[in-house]
Each structure stands twice: as C-alpha cells, then as structure tokens.
Amino acid sequence: HLYTGNDELIVIIKDSNNLISSSITKEITVNDDNNDGDDEECFR
C-alpha cells in the first residue's frame, strides 16, 4: 500500500474519517422515530 512504513499517518487518517462520519451519521439519523419521547439512533 501507499504508506508502507508510516502506519501512524494511516491511523490518524482513519480516525479522522471515522469521527467525521460518525458525527454526520448521528446528526442526520438521531430522531424520535416512534414518537415515544426518546431518540432512536439509526445507522443506515
């Protein structure tokens, strides 16, 4: 792969992408789907 010998960089990139993806996913999909007063988390 492209970053042979530079695992730290890969980890940082992966972590950043995961954080961004998680934040966007939760912001969009957390809502009260069945109107019982609490939020359901749906990861599509």
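(the above was protein one; protein two follows)
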Amino acid sequence: MKPAFSTKGALHWATEPSPAHEKSGFKGSAWESAIVQLAEASDARFIDILRKHVAAGVIRSERALAALNAPEPDAAT
C-alpha cells in the first residue's frame, strides 16, 4: 500500500513549487491558491510557508500579500 504522504513529510507538497505553478508564470495556480487559503485560515504552518515563498518571489499575488498582512486572530479583539 502506498503511503498517504511523501517520506519528506505531510507538508512537502507546499514547500516546493509545483511544475504547473512554474508554467503559469508563478501566478494563479491551484498550488498557490491552496497555500494562500490555508494561510488565510490562520494555519501558522502555512503562514510561514507562504512568507518564505513570497520572500523568494515564487508567490506574488495581492491575495498572498493580504494574507500575510492580516491581523493576528487574537489581535483583532
């Protein structure tokens, strides 16, 4: 039986840009959308991954920047 996740870990898919994302010109891929959506849901792991991709220029969307600049859930109160 094939393991559910790569031997590199459950989040490996998010740490390396997908070939489809590279072909898209680094914008608007399903890979990017999934990472941004999880970061918008305040998942700290994906906020960190998104921050690294934005810093490297791999993810460049306004939505990604907005997700990184959103107030912390506790700070909104």
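Reviewer note on protein two: DSSP finds five helices and no strands in the chain.
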